[in-house]
Amino acid sequence: MSHYGMAIDLNRCIGCHTCSMACKMANNLPENVWWNRVATTDGYSMDSTVTEWPHGAIEFVPMSCQHCENPACVKVCPVGATYKDPETGIVRQDYDKCIGCRMCVAACPYTGVRSFNWEEPAFYYDFAVGDAGVPEHQKHVVEKCTFCYQRIADGQEPACMHLCPERARWWGDLDDPDSTVSQLLAKRQYKTLLPEKGTKPSVYYLV
To answer: Is residue 56 part of a domain?
Structure first.
């Protein structure tokens, strides 16, 4: 058994959105669906800031499912479609079980990390892209980041980390003290999102 997690270095992130595109392609995401996005701490919209030139500064904060140790979404799902994988600690979605009630969306304190397919998913291309092991996207189900479970099962890294040009992301087993991500967390300062909610995220932000 493992407890997979990720550390994101906010000092290295340049807001290039490569992680968002890597995620979209690897998981064959439908049009207008993003599981991974890059927010800014002060701006009113993407890549904006509320401070004025020449004193403007932007801190980019990549956002996706936090794969919590104590996930609020799992507790409220009435059919077990949202569940925590016992082997990896990854919070997953079973599309075939999902009844579209969106209770998980309401319970999750991290706004915008889930999407709901109101209609039959539409795609930019008339052929599938990305990894062969990606489940088929369905109408009336909730979707979110899976830490690229299909890649992990094949011994690979999540696409967002693998393609980050600034090497701002680190991935590994949080239960293994010798893993790179565990060693980083042991020597670097970090923060998590909304710790007061008690969800215990598995995504850490190095500061």
So the answer is: no
CATH number at residue 75: 3.30.70.20
Residue 81 structural domain: 4-51+63-206
Report yes or no on 58 lying in a domain: no
Predicted confidence pLDDT, tens digits, the chain (207 residues): 899 999 999 999 999 999 999 999 999 999 999 999 998 877 666 777 767 777 777 889 999 999 999 999 999 999 999 999 999 999 999 999 999 999 999 999 999 999 999 999 999 888 888 898 899 999 999 999 999 999 999 999 999 998 999 999 999 999 999 999 999 999 999 999 999 999 999 999 999
In terms of Cβ atoms closer than 10 Å to its own Cβ (0-12, 13-18, 19+), residue 121 is: middle
pTM of the model: 0.92
